[in-house]
Task: inverse folding
C-alpha cells in the first residue's frame, strides 16, 4: 500500500472517530426524537416487553421494533447515557461507509494504487456530507434503516456480479434478504420500495429480464422469514398494530392532504444541495467523468449504472410523498458517494482537475469564508436580538472550525498533488464537525434540551411523587426520571393513539383535572413543561411551593 493510501486510511479512521464516535456523549439529548428513541428501549428493558413498543407505558405504534431492539442493546452495553443512545446511529454510518468501500473495491479488482485511492475516497465523501454527519450524530432510526437498505442493495448487486447459480450468488442473495427483513422491522414497507426501485430498473437496464424473477425469490423469502415472527407476535398481542401502522405511517403520510410534515414536490430538490455540502459545488466536475463511463460492460460501469438508479429513483419516490423530512433522503447518500468518487477518478486520471472542480472548490471556500465573516457580526452585534453563545470559548471554537474549513479548501485549490487535492477538500469539514458537538447554540439547548433541569432534580423526585408533564417534555421526563406513569397535561400529540386504550384512562388531563390532582396530593406533585405552556396554565393551577426554569424560553420545574 502506498504512503498516500495509508494516509487516506488514517484520515478515514480519524474522521470517523473524531466526528462521529468520541464526542457522542457530550451533548444533551434533544426533544422529541432523541428522547423518544431513548425512552422506548428503556421501557422495553425495564418492563421486559420486547414485542410492543411503549412510551410512558402507552402503546406507541409509529414504528416496528428492530430499531428499538438495537438501541436497547446499546443501552445494555454502555449504560443509560447519551453515548449509548446515539451510538447505533453513528455505528450505522460507519458500517455504511465500509459497504461503500467494498462495492468500490469489488468493481475494480485489478486496479492499481491510484484506483485503490478512489475506493477509499468514496467513504470519505460519504462521511463528510453534511446530512450524513447531522443525522449520524442524532438518535433517530433513519441511520439504521439506511444502513440496512445499503446492505440490501449492495449484497444483491454483488450477487448479480457472481456466477449465476453459484454458492456465492445464493449466499449474497440470502444476506440481501436478511438485511431487507431488518429494514422492514425498522421502518416498515418502505424497506421494499428502495431496493425494488433500485434493482428492478437496473436489471432491466442490463437486459437481464430473467434475473428479475430468478434472483428475486430467495431475498424475498428470506425477508419474509426474518420479519414474520415479530409480525405475527405483534398481531396476536396487539391486533390493531398493522392497521394503524399501515394506514397512518404509510398511506396517510404518502398520499393524504393532512400528511404530517407536508411539503411540496420540490422540497428535496431545493434542500438537497445544502445536505450534500461540501461536494455540492464540485458535482458538475464529477458528472463529466460519470457520463464518460456510463456505457460498457466493465464492473465499474455496472456499479455506476446501479448507483444512478439507486440515487435518482428513490429520490423521486421520496419527492412524490406528501410528507417529507430531510432525513428521508439519507439512503441516497451511499450511491452519491460512489458516483462522485467514480466520476472524479475518471476526471483526475484523464485530464486532471479542470475548471469545474477548481471552481466548485473556490465557491465552497467563499461560502464558508462568508460564514466566517458573518458569524462574529451576529455574535457580537446580534441579529434581531439573537446571539448564539454566552461563553467566549465556544465563539473561538466556531471561528476556528470555519477558518479550518476555508483554509483546507484554499490549500486544496493550490495543491499540485492530485490525490492530495481531493483529500484536503474531503478533510475540510473535520474540525468543523468536531466542534459542532461542543457548540450547540444556547437558544437551541434551552428550547430543545430539558435534560439539564431534569438531571438537576432527579434525585429529589421519589417514586411517591406524582409527575405531570406537557407532551413536548414527556419523553425527556420519562427518560431522565425513569418513570412510565407520567400524567399528560394538554394536547397528547403522538401519544394520542396510545391514550385511546382503556388501560390509559385518566392519563391525559385538562387544566381543571390537573389542579384537582395537585390539591388532592399536597406536597407530592411535580410539573415539568415548556415555559410557554406553563405560563398559559399558571393562573388556573395552585401556586407552586418551588419554581425553577432553565431560561426564558426553556422549561419549568415546579413543585406543589
Result:
Amino acid at each position: 500500500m502506498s504512503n498516500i493510501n495509508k494516509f487516506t486510511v488514517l484520515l478515514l479512521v480519524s474522521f470517523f472517530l473524531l466526528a462521529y464516535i468520541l464526542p457522542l456523549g457530550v451533548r444533551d439529548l434533544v426533544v422529541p426524537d432523541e428522547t423518544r428513541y431513548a425512552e422506548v428501549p428503556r421501557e422495553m428493558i425495564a418492563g421486559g416487553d420486547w414485542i410492543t413498543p411503549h412510551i410512558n407505558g402507552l402503546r406507541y405504534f409509529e414504528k416496528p421494533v428492530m430499531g428499538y431492539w438495537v438501541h436497547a442493546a446499546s443501552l445494555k452495553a454502555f449504560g443509560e447515557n447519551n453515548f449509548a443512545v446515539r451510538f447505533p446511529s453513528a455505528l450505522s454510518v460507519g458500517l455504511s461507509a465500509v459497504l461503500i468501500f467494498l462495492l468500490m473495491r469489488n468493481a475494480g479488482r485489478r486496479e492499481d494504487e491510484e484506483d485503490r485511492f478512489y475506493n477509499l475516497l468514496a467513504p470519505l465523501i460519504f462521511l463528510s456530507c453534511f446530512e450524513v454527519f447531522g443525522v449520524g450524530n442524532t438518535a433517530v432510526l433513519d441511520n439504521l434503516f439506511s444502513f440496512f437498505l445499503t446492505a440490501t442493495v449492495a449484497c444483491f448487486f454483488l450477487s448479480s456480479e457472481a456466477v449465476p447459480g453459484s454458492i456465492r450468488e445464493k449466499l449474497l442473495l440470502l444476506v440481501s434478504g436478511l438485511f431487507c427483513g431488518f429494514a422492514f422491522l425498522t421502518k416498515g414497507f418502505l424497506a421494499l420500495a428502495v431496493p425494488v426501485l433500485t434493482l428492478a430498473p437496473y436489471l432491466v437496464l442490463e437486459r437481464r429480464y430473467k434475473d428479475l424473477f430468478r434472483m428475486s425469490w430467495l431475498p424475498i423469502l428470506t425477508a419474509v422469514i426474518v420479519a414474520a415472527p415479530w409480525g405475527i407476535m405483534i398481531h396476536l398481542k396487539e391486533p390493531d398494530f398493522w392497521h394503524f401502522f399501515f394506514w397512518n405511517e404509510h398511506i396517510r403520510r404518502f398520499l393524504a392532504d393532512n400528511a404530517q410534515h407536508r411539503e411540496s414536490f420540490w422540497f428535496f430538490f431545493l434542500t438537497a444541495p445544502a445536505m450534500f455540502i461540501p461536494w455540492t459545488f464540485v458535482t458538475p466536475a464529477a458528472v463529466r467523468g460519470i457520463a464518460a463511463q456510463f456505457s460498457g460492460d466493465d464492473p465499474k460501469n455496472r456499479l455506476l449504472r446501479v448507483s444512478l438508479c439507486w440515487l435518482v429513483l428513490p429520490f423521486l419516490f421520496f419527492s412524490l410523498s406528501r410528507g417529507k423530512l430531510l432525513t428521508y433522503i439519507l439512503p441516497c447518500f451511499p450511491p452519491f458517494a460512489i458516483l462522485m468518487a467514480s466520476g472524479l477518478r475518471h476526471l483526475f486520471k484523464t485530464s486532471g482537475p479542470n475548471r469545474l472542480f477548481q471552481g466548485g472548490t473556490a465557491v465552497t471556500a467563499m461560502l464558508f469564508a462568508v460564514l466566517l465573516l458573518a458569524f462574529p457580526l451576529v455574535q457580537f452585534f446580534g441579529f434581531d436580538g439573537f446571539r448564539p453563545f454566552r461563553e467566549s470559548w465556544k465563539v473561538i471554537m466556531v471561528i476556528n472550525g470555519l477558518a479550518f474549513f476555508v483554509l483546507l479548501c484554499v490549500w486544496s485549490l493550490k495543491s499540485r498533488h492530485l490525490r492530495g487535492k481531493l483529500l484536503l477538500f474531503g478533510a475540510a469539514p473535520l474540525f468543523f464537525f468536531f466542534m459542532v458537538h461542543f457548540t450547540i447554540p444556547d437558544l437551541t439547548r434551552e428550547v430543545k434540551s430539558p435534560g439539564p433541569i431534569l438531571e438537576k432534580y432527579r434525585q429529589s423526585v421519589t417514586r411517591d411523587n406524582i409527575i405531570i408533564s406537557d407532551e413536548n417534555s414527556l419523553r425527556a421526563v420519562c427518560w431522565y426520571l425513569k418513570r412510565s406513569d407520567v400524567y399528560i397535561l394538554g394536547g397528547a400529540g403522538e401519544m394520542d393513539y396510545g391514550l385511546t386504550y382503556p388501560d390509559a384512562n385518566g392519563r391525559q388531563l385538562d387544566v381543571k383535572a390537573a389542579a384537582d390532582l395537585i390539591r388532592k396530593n399536597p406536597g407530592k406533585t411535580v410539573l415539568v413543561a415548556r415555559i410557554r405552556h406553563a405560563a398559559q396554565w399558571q393562573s388556573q393551577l395552585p401556586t407552586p411551593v418551588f419554581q425553577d426554569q432553565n431560561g426564558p424560553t426553556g422549561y419549568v420545574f415546579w413543585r406543589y
